[in-house]
Amino acid sequence: MEELTENKAAMQLTAKTFAGLENLLAEELTGIGATGVEIINRGVQFSGGLEVVYKANYLCRTAVRVLQPITVFTMKSQDDLYTEVMKIDWDGIFNLHQTFVVDANVFYSEITHSQYAALRVKDAIVDQFREKTGKRPWVGKEDADIYIDVHISHNICTVSLDSSGESLHKRGYRIDADKAPISEVLAAGIVLLSGWKGEKDLYDPMCGSGTIAIEAAMIANNIPAGYYRQKFAFMNWAGFDKELWEEIKKEEDAKISEAEHSIFASDRSEKAVNIAKRNIKNAGLHKDIELKVSFFDAIVPEKQEGILVFNPPYGKRLEERGEIINLYKSIGDTLKKSFSGFEAWIISPDTDIAKFIGLRPSARIHLYNGPIETRLIKFEMYAGSKKGKYMDDEQKENYRKERSQRDAGEKREYNKNEKPTWKKRDPYPEKRSYGNSGEKKYVGGKKPFGKEKKDFRGDRKTRGGRVGD
Hints:
By secondary structure, this protein is α/β, with parallel strands linked by helices. The protein contains eleven helices and 19 strands.
């Protein structure tokens, strides 16, 4: 274990993140002293010693996990996973008194099930300890001491020590969450992509659990990403340097400051605001974030410039679509009416729905919110429309009519495209069955022939003279 965790620059490491945030993470890692930084899909590979490992976990806002690979091998069969993992000197990495957990991810491999891969790795580790000592370590389902990460892609398997433990998006300040909360890592990434660092007022008018506002306040006040966490898995490594860790924490915590500008968070849901209030208070940021129950169109900004960063509802269910279209149109109306001089950054699903905002975006950034493909869209607000500065009254009126007709056409096209299409088919396929004689029979439900009329008993129905079931 000592050679794996020795404080030297030759250690090869990998930090995972969300798709679309790789460049931000690479910048963060370079800033803490990482070398050999190379962007990969949903992650960054780099080199560094224990100081870099500790700082990556404590400071990098866009990192999900920080991994130290132990071995890489090619699998020619499923048995190779067990065989190769048995070759690792596990009692040099952790001891019998420590619990461990294995997390596996599998893509395009002989092994098609992640849980099966994790189970085979666990069996190999336990069997090795049992052969050497006659005893076995225990798997910790929650709050394990040692975290092991297994990644299999195209039959290339990488086994790593996870220095983070629980995912780094679990900052430690969230007590509760409203429905479909945005990840802390993604929220921080959005704020960083907007370029905001506390130099002007920030508004989140659809704050939900308050995640974007809290992450923005942490950025503005230089509060480390891991400031509220009590544990990281590297604290249980045999080579853990407690003195170095405490020195890093002390140095970085000393940089915490107070932002000069305000953060305003609001939501139309009183339940969501109450949840956000508890989270904000738990983070000790209740003096930095002004929170209230309010509809977006009721907000009156205190200054004539600032930034809006928010995550509107997505409306993925069919019955929500009409309401979501109206919501997005009202967002555009409110931006034009009340937020001239502002920048607005809105994360929206990768569909045509964002066009109902009715404004021309100045930037689009491809991101993922969990499994949902999204766009982070930037709008720059002017006093009146940008075109309006150069049009006379007649041109403005013609433009207004043209815009109204275009919006109506876009709405019709959107509804047409979003409606499910059904092929012509027998209306009762699930009712049809065939007896041994090959004769068609209809089992249960209504019969697809004849007119419906009441049976003489009044509580049953017939069609074409046949009694319904």
